[in-house]
Write a structure and sequence with these properties.
mainly alpha
Length: 176
């Protein structure tokens, strides 16, 4: 079977429900952004230091849940994983416990894996804004909570990986 179907040549695509919509439909933007974020998570994983096995397992789980989210945004009746939000919160609590308290804004810099985490964080926020523009029947409250928590997760992951790799912390300096 050929990869190209020609069915999208006129600017439409098919949702999981079978409904054809314009490729500019907000649902397409939402699950496309979820797909983009999933790719970024893979890019973060590709830069993880060898000793970050726990983080790699977490990110693999997150990638699978992002794929689930994309399917739901495309109209699939796929169920949500009830362990997702508690798992994210537990992982963040564990990361935060191992980090010094900080009261400064941090620039997305330090080293490659830290910067990739920040990029994943910002795309997560874009996905959240996109999902919030969808009608409420197209996105669940728990999916919104998942994405909101996920951006916080990426922020803490950037700090955790920065500490693990001895990356310099780059703090924002206001114009004086």
């Amino acid at each position: 079977m050929k990869i190209y179907t020609k069915t999208g040549d006129k600017g439409t695509t098919c949702l999981a429900t079978g409904e054809r919509v314009r490729k500019t439909d907000l649902r397409i933007e939402a699950y496309g952004t979820a797909d983009e974020l999933n790719s970024l998570v893979g890019w973060v994983r590709a830069a993880l230091p060898q000793q970050a096995t726990k983080e790699d397992e977490q990110l693999t789980y997150i990638q699978n849940r992002l794929f689930d989210l994309g399917a739901r945004l495309a109209g699939s009746e796929l169920e949500e994983d009830p362990r997702l939000i508690p798992s994210l919160e537990l992982w963040m609590d564990e990361m935060q416990a191992g980090l010094p308290e900080s009261h400064v804004f941090i620039l997305p810099a330090g080293n490659e894996v830290v910067t990739r985490c920040h990029l994943a964080r910002t795309v997560t926020r874009r996905l959240e804004r996109c999902m919030l523009r969808l009608e409420t029947h197209q996105v669940s409250d728990s999916d919104i909570i998942f994405i909101n928590r996920l951006s916080d997760y990426f922020f803490l992951l950037s700090k955790t990986l920065g500490k693990l790799t001895s990356a310099p912390v780059c703090s924002w300096e206001k114009v004086k």
